[in-house]
Amino acid sequence: MKKLIPLILLGLVVAACGGGATLAATVDGQEVTVGDVESLIDSGGADIAKDQFAQFLGFAIQFLVINKAAEEDYGLTFTDEEVAAEADRIIEEVAAGQAREEFLAERGVTEEFLLRIARQGLLDVELRELLLEDVPEPTSEEIEEARAQAELAGTNACVSHILVESEEEALDVLDRLDAGEDFGEIATEVSTDAGSAANNGILPCGSPSGYVEAFRDVVMTAEVGQIHPDPVETEFGFHVMLVTDRQVPTAEDLPGDEELADGVKDTAVIAALEEWFLAAVAEADVVVEEEFGTWDPDSPTGPTVVPPSETSTSSTVLDPASTSTSVDGAASTTSGG
After folding, report:
1. pLDDT digits 0-9 by tens, 118-150
2. How far, in Å, CA of 169 to CA of 174, rounded?
3. Element of type H or E holding 73
4. CA distance 177 to 67
5. First vs last Cα of the chain: how many Å apart?
6. What are the beta bridge partners of residue 31?
7. CA 247 to CA 227: how far, in whole Å?
8. How many whole angstroms separate alpha carbon 326 and alpha carbon 318?
9. pTM given for the model
10. Lowest pLDDT segment from 179-183, 231-235, 311-315
11. Is residue 291 very low, low, confident or very high in pLDDT (cuts 50, 70, 90)?
12. How many angstroms separate the CA atoms of 303 and 63, rounded?
């Protein structure tokens, strides 16, 4: 029997040996025991730390909330045979020939965890199809916006910049460049972006989509090889910019209208799925026993259990906006079903 590392809170020690039936939480009156949580974790015989236990307790709570809501709202249920077949499909897709037991053990999860992930994967597919029925056809404006985003994502640009705190300093930099001083030397001397300053102001080449809007717009429109004539203000300060290369996808490289429309609808379905998921969590009556942590439905990273004596957690959580089901890492994620 796996042994749970003692969870100490206010002098209380809770051990899993002999404590499998110990209540860890309730979800709308349904009990989640220590044993239920342990059944999801393959610790390899090692003790289970309280933050790991809290993480998997959060998973167990979400499993119950999601399945209950899906059945009540949409009548969705699946047989054990359907779930087992989906688990087999997941392993075939992601294990790359590795033995099932070894694959799960390396990720610290059990067959039971895999089966719950499989059930959620089936729910995800069905929920998306149901929600798609209520998504309107995209407008021409939405399709054009999607095209612009695809063009942005497919663009490869190389840019250098000198970041300073004030517009006056940026104008001074431009004057020095007009006088013939070297861009890289000035960047090394005055730029407050230490990373690029150490590389003569050069940023990594790639899609401009990761830049803030004002900076991104200049990367996409500035004359290549020429210093942009005006300082560019962002939340970080004032930038003097030089786009050295920009490769933009052609119309033939971009998705067609139908594919773009499908993408817009997929995005709308994901948003609707997340809204449904968060509503289900908000409506659920969840109580976590004090020695195991506290339930935080409004965590920035998603609904989770905060371990005892911790104010926050960086644990992975189930993400209803995820686009694929996976079993990867110590804790796996799946789309919200």
Report:
1. 999 999 999 999 999 999 999 999 999 999 999
2. 9
3. helix 50-74
4. 63
5. 31
6. 26
7. 18
8. 11
9. 0.67
10. 311-315
11. very high
12. 12
